[in-house]
Design brief:
Helix content is 37%, strand content 22%. Bound molecules: S-adenosylmethionine (SAM).
């Protein structure tokens, strides 16, 4: 594997930056390849790891990605430069809830604050192309979504409840066909139904 990818993984471990798990990212990259996805919106850049890896799948791919943490945003910009992908990855240094986009995307990848997934989905759904897909990471939240609630701290319990609500929302949403794959930390794939 490219040493620059390994360096990003090492940086993430050292600085406790949560990036996608190995089998989660492999799943995502295979999905992008198989479905010939070209325009991607990502919520939660962190240090640019997943944005860069998605972009490297095919030279026609472009990624718009949003990050609100300055240090991570700056590290992402450095990494994107190292790969020479400045022309294909646009990083918006903003809170995703303050971003207004008019473009449409084939894939919206939600990987930001877990307690806000439902709000992210509702806000950015209008930017999804007609037959697009919304992919959500961490739906399993380190196995905690199936844990006994009593054993969890108040904060974690709140997060778990919100993730469970989100999963139910996806499963009951008549406009999308959702499958949750037990890879990485639980990856939800919601394909917009053809009407
Ligand atoms: N997708 C990245 C990867 O796999 O390489 C990992 C993203 S990390 C799990 C989540 C990131 O989302 C954090 O860096 C956090 O600062 C950012 N984030 C959380 N809520 C956000 C928001 N409302 N707007 C923008 N960024 C947000």
């Amino acid at each position: 594997m490219d040493h620059r990818i390994k360096e990003m993984e090492a940086y993430a471990t050292l600085h406790h930056v949560p990036i996608m798990e190995h089998d989660g990212i492999s799943f995502l990259l295979d999905y992008i390849k198989e479905h010939h996805i070209q325009r991607i919106l990502e919520l939660g850049t962190a240090i640019g790891y997943s944005a860069i890896r998605m972009c490297l799948v095919d030279s026609a791919i472009t990624v718009t990605t949003i990050e609100r943490d300055r240090e991570r945003y700056e590290e992402a910009m450095r990494n994107i430069q190292k790969f020479g992908l400045e022309n294909r990855i646009t990083v918006l240094f903003q809170d995703a809830f303050e971003v207004e986009l008019n473009d449409t995307f084939d894939l919206i990848f939600i990987d930001a604050a877990k307690s806000q997934y439902l709000k992210f989905f509702k806000k950015f759904e209008k930017n999804l192309s007609k037959h697009g897909v919304i992919i959500s990471d961490n739906l399993n939240f380190h196995g905690l979504v199936h844990a006994d609630e009593v054993t969890l701290s108040r904060n974690v319990r709140g997060m778990v409840r919100k993730l469970n609500q989100y999963t139910q929302f996806l499963e009951n949403n008549p406009y999308y066909e959702t499958t949750i794959y037990p890879v990485g930390d639980g990856v939800g794939v919601s394909v917009r139904k053809k009407v």
